[in-house]
Design goal:
With 78 residues, the chain is mostly helical. Helix content is 56%, strand content 5%.
Length: 78
């Protein structure tokens, strides 16, 4: 994980990645998508946003945590 802020369309499970819905773009809204990218390019708070993204990624998508969840699911089947 590189700690990059995420900009994505609001489809599938993309909501799981967001603490702030500012960069969760309604599907097909290319103008808002482009404006969000421009905002990040010009943002003075990019370092702060990177740190938040990295923290979320570590908490929600840590391989060890995910592996333990799968192990527990399999144990419950046995």
């Amino acid at each position: 994980t590189f700690g990059l802020p995420i900009i994505a369309f609001d489809v599938g499970g993309n909501k799981d990645f967001f603490f702030n819905k500012k960069f969760l773009i309604p599907y097909g809204n290319d103008k808002k998508f482009r404006r969000s990218i421009e905002f990040l390019i010009n943002s003075k708070s990019l370092k702060h946003l990177r740190n938040i993204s990295l923290d979320i990624s570590k908490r929600k998508f840590d391989n060890k945590i995910t592996l333990n969840k799968y192990i527990n699911i399999y144990k419950n089947f046995l």
